[in-house]
Amino acid sequence: MMDAEKLYEMLRNAQEPKGYFFNTDRERVFELLEALLTNKERYGYMVCPCRLSAGDREHDKDIICPCVYRTADVEEYGSCYCNLYVSKEWNRGKIPHAYVPERRPPEKMMF
Predict the structure, then answer these.
(1) What is the CA radius of gyration of the chain?
(2) Regarding beta strands 85-86 and 21-22, do their DSSP bridges make them parallel or antiparallel, or are they unpaired?
(3) Half-sphere exposure (Cβ direction) of 19: Cα atoms closer than 13 Å
(4) pLDDT above 70 for 1
(5) What is the pLDDT of residues 77-108, one digit of tens each?
(6) Are 100 and 79 spatial neighbours (Cβ–Cβ below 8 Å)?
C-alpha cells in the first residue's frame, strides 16, 4: 500500500506543473492524504475526504480527488473545498483565506 509521503510526492509532481500546490500547512495536507488513502482502501478510489461518499464510483466520480470542482474553487477562492490544493497566491498570503462553499449539487449528496 502507498504511504502518504509517496502520495504527496506523486501528486505534487503531477499537480504543480498544472498550477495546483499543496497547502503549506503540512499537518493538514498529510491528514487529508491519509484520509484519501483510507478512502482508497475502503472504496477502491480516492474520494474527497471532506465529502460524504456514496461508495459508488459512478455516483462519486465528481468527487474523486482532484474533484471536478477544484478548478473553479482555486480560480475563485485560491483554494479547493478541502484546502488541500491551493494557488501560489493563497500559500503566500496574497489573497484572503476565505471559506470555500460547497459546489456539489444537493442532489448528488442524497443517496
Answers:
(1) 14
(2) antiparallel
(3) 10
(4) no
(5) 999 999 999 999 999 999 999 999 999 999 88
(6) yes
Residue 55's CB: how many other CB atoms inside 10 A?
14
pTM of the model: 0.94
Contact 32, 39 (CB under 8 A): no
Number of helices and strands in the chain (H, E): 5, 2
Contact 103, 73 (CB under 8 A): yes
Show the cell assigned to 78: 485560491
Q: Return the pLDDT at 36.
A: 97
Counted residue by residue, the chain has a size of 111
Q: Give the three cell numbers for residue 15.
A: 499537480
11 backbone φψ class: left, alpha, beta (φ>0; ψ -120 to 50): alpha
**Grid cell in block for residue 46:** 480516492
Name the residue with cell 456539489: 104
